[in-house]
Write a structure and sequence with these properties.
about 180 residues, alpha+beta, Alpha-Beta Plaits, 4-stranded antiparallel sheet, 8 strands
């Protein structure tokens, strides 16, 4: 049995409110075990006998659509994958740790095409820097969201695929807790 983390898009944002006990029950209804949530932003940890994460993503998305009444893009990573994601840093430590800066990880369903990558790189500015590694986007925000012209919606439009963002601190905490 493998342990996975599902990063869900559109949970407790944009007027969609889901209590974590309800979310855990939805996952348990799919015969997933040891279901836990980590903060109320759509991070669900669970065990499954399945080794096919794409099939798991589809199963969870379908079940969430039925239970919640709206589409919830789902991005699954194994705990070893999450450890690698948390450890990877394409920016200097001084940039990441500079007060006022924030590093976000965008979880994607697949690797972006070269054309999508170029489009994303063209969005870089003094405030925003982007790096793609495997199926993740690393976004260094130098300042506040209000100072950036970038957003999760623009990320999805630029890459041409769904994504969900998490602060690197959250990703590292999950990786550490479940390693």
């Amino acid at each position: 049995m493998s342990k996975y983390v599902a990063f869900l898009r559109a949970i407790n944002v944009g007027g969609h409110t889901v209590k974590m006990d309800q979310l855990r029950r939805i996952f348990e209804d799919m015969a997933l075990s040891n279901v836990e949530t980590f903060i109320a932003s759509g991070n669900v940890i669970f065990n499954s006998t399945s080794r096919n994460t794409k099939a798991l993503e589809s199963k969870i998305e379908g079940h969430l659509q039925k239970a919640l009444g709206y589409e919830v893009a789902t991005f699954i990573r194994s705990v070893p994958e999450l450890e690698e994601i948390a450890a990877y840093n394409p920016f200097t430590e001084s940039e990441v740790n500079d007060p006022g800066n924030a590093l976000f990880v965008g979880f994607l369903g697949s690797r972006p095409s070269p054309d999508s990558r170029r489009k994303l790189e063209s969005c870089a500015s003094k405030i925003d820097s982007f790096r793609i590694h495997e199926r993740e986007l690393y976004w260094l925000l130098r300042g506040k969201f209000t100072e950036s012209e970038f957003s999760g919606a623009r990320l999805e439009k630029t890459l041409g695929m769904p994504a969900t963002l998490r602060n690197i601190t959250t990703v590292r905490k999950i990786a550490l807790k479940y390693s």
